[in-house]
Design brief:
GO cellular component, one term: mediator complex
Organism: Davidia involucrata (Dove tree)
Protein name: Mediator of RNA polymerase II transcription subunit 32
Radius of gyration: 27 Å
Number of helices: 4
GO biological process, one term: root development
Strand content: under 5%
Order of helices and strands: HHHH
Helix content: 55-70%
Distance between the termini: 45 Å
Largest sheet: none
Length: 145
């Protein structure tokens, strides 16, 4: 993470320096277009692009961390791992489930999302190309279904 922050900071500093360079060159040329102003503008344009790339990379990193934290929290809550105490009931009052069962349910949800995206969820269940994941009677939450 430090590398990403450093890269973003460096790209920003270079971008600001390039902007200042454009202003200085433009002032020294009396506002006239010269080879120096063209070069300063080209440098500014390159630094702007590099800064945008650094911002995009930082944003991708933040999004990946958010997803990882969200996934870890979901697994912790679903399996009953709360505040470093495995096996303690989650604060939602729901009984914990196994990580394997959580993965099965996650796959079933992904299949449903795929089916809905392809429009097959709006028609009858007989036309589904992929049957939904079967319920497993060994799990108490499935037995009620």
């Amino acid at each position: 993470m430090d590398n990403i922050v450093d890269a973003l900071n460096n790209a920003y500093q270079e971008f600001v320096a390039a902007a200042a360079g454009v202003l200085e060159v433009k002032e020294s040329s009396g506002g006239q277009k010269t080879a120096a102003t063209d070069a300063a503008l080209e440098n500014f344009k390159q630094r702007w692009e590099l800064f945008r790339v650094a911002c995009d990379q930082a944003e991708e990193f933040v999004e990946s961390v958010k997803q990882r934290i969200g996934s870890e929290c979901l697994v912790d809550e679903a399996t009953g791992y709360v505040a470093g105490k495995p096996g303690q009931a989650a604060s939602t009052g729901l009984p914990p489930i196994s990580a394997v069962r959580l993965e099965q349910m996650s796959k079933a949800v992904r299949w449903l999302v795929i089916e809905l995206q392809h429009g097959s969820g709006a028609t009858g269940s007989s036309s589904h190309p992929h049957p939904p994941a079967p319920f497993d009677a060994r799990f108490s939450e499935d037995a009620a279904q």
